[in-house]
Design a protein that fits this description.
- The protein starts with 7 loop residues before the first helix and ends with a helix.
- It is an alpha/beta fold and about 260 residues long.
- Helix content is about 30%, strand content about 25%.
- A six-stranded mixed β-sheet has the order 6-7-8-3-9-10, sandwiched between helices. A four-stranded antiparallel β-sheet has the order 2-1-4-5, covered by helices on one side.
- Bound molecules: adenosine-5'-diphosphate (ADP).
- The site of adenosine-5'-diphosphate has 10 residues, from helix 2.
C-alpha cells in the first residue's frame, strides 16, 4: 500500500507546510540556502551540532552520511517541517527559522520517502490537487508536460495505490517540480527508479536554474551530478569539497575516512 494511505490528510498538511516556506527574493548574490550554527536536539540526544552549510543559488550540493547522521533532520528543518533547537536557515537571504512566511514553501520542491500522494486518487487527480494548492498557472499544460518528463502519461488515470514503488517515485518527482520551485530538497530520490527514470532524473537535476540539495547513499551518482559534496557524521558537517576535485575512487576513500 501507499506511503500515505491511511494518513493521506496528514501527508497533505505536511506537504502544505513543507511548502509553507517563501517568496521574498534576497539580495543578489546571497546564497540560495544558508544554514548557520544549526543545532537540533531530541531530549538529550544531539542530532545536529552547529552545522554551517551554504548552497549557492543555482548550484547542486550532494550530502552524504551514514544512517542516523542527521541528514533527514537537516532537510526537514530547511523544508520547515522540523523546528531547530538553535541556529538559523536562510533561503535567498530570508531567515525562515524566524519569520515563517507561508508563501516561502511555494519556492521549495521536496521529495522524500513520504511521497505525499493520495493512494485513492489517480496520478492526474493528485497532480491537479497539488497544482491548485500551489496556485500553478496553466495547470493542465504544466501537468501534461511533467507527466511526459517523468514518463507517466500512460498511467495518468491509474490510482496511485496501483503503482509500483518506482512509478510512485516518478509521480512524486512530478509533484515536487509542479510549481517550478527554485529550491529542490531531495532525500534519496533514486530509490526504486529504473534505468530510464535514473536518466530522466539526471536530466532534471542538470537544470542549474535551481538550487539543489540532495541526500543519498549513492556516492557515484551524487558525485557525478553535484557541483559540491558534503559529509555529515554524527550531526556534524565533517567534509566539503568541489566535485571537480574528486574522482569516484578518491571520494569513496574520503567517505570511509570521514563517515565511519
Ligand atoms: P539520517 O537521515 O542521516 O539517517 P536522521 O536525521 O533521520 O538521520 O536522524 C538523526 C538522529 O536523530 C538519529 O539518531 C535518529 O534516531 C534521531 N531522530 C530523528 N528524528 C527523531 C525524533 N523525532 N525523535 C527522536 N530522535 C530522532
Amino acid at each position: 500500500m501507499g506511503d500515505r494511505s491511511a494518513s493521506g490528510l496528514a501527508g497533505a498538511s505536511g506537504a502544505a507546510s513543507a511548502s509553507g516556506l517563501a517568496g521574498v527574493a534576497g539580495a543578489p548574490g546571497t546564497p540560495g540556502i544558508s544554514v548557520r550554527q544549526l543545532t537540533k536536539t531530541y531530549g538529550r540526544f544531539r542530532a545536529l551540532h552547529r552545522v554551517d552549510m551554504e548552497v549557492a543559488p543555482g548550484t547542486f550540493l550532494a550530502l552524504f552520511g551514514p544512517n542516523g547522521a542527521g541528514k533527514s533532520t537537516l532537510l526537514g528543518i530547511i523544508a520547515g517541517l522540523v523546528r531547530p533547537s538553535r541556529g538559523q536557515v536562510f533561503l535567498d537571504g530570508e531567515q525562515i527559522t524566524k519569520d515563517r512566511d507561508e508563501d516561502l514553501g511555494k519556492r521549495i520542491g521536496a521529495l522524500s520517502y513520504q511521497t505525499y500522494l493520495y493512494d485513492e486518487l489517480t496520478v492526474l487527480e493528485n497532480l491537479r490537487f497539488y497544482g491548485r494548492l500551489f496556485g500553478v498557472e496553466n495547470r493542465e499544460d504544466r501537468i501534461g508536460s511533467l507527466l511526459h518528463t517523468v514518463g507517466m502519461e500512460a498511467r495518468s488515470g491509474s490510482p496511485v495505490r496501483t503503482l509500483s514503488r518506482g512509478m510512485r517515485q516518478r509521480v512524486a518527482l512530478a509533484r515536487a517540480l509542479l510549481h517550478d520551485p527554485d529550491i529542490l530538497l531531495l532525500d534519496e530520490p533514486y530509490t526504486g527508479l529504473d534505468q530510464d527514470a535514473l536518466v530522466m532524473l539526471k536530466t532534471v537535476l542538470a537544470d542549474r536554474k535551481k538550487t539543489i540539495l540532495l541526500v543519498t547513499h549513492d556516492l557515484v551518482r551524487g558525485l557525478e551530478s553535484a557541483d559540491r559534496v558534503a559529509i555529515l557524521n554524527r550531526g556534524r558537517l565533517v567534509y566539503e569539497a568541489e566535485t571537480s576535485e574528486l574522482s569516484p575512487a578518491d571520494f569513496e576513500q574520503t567517505y570511509r575516512d570521514h563517515a565511519m
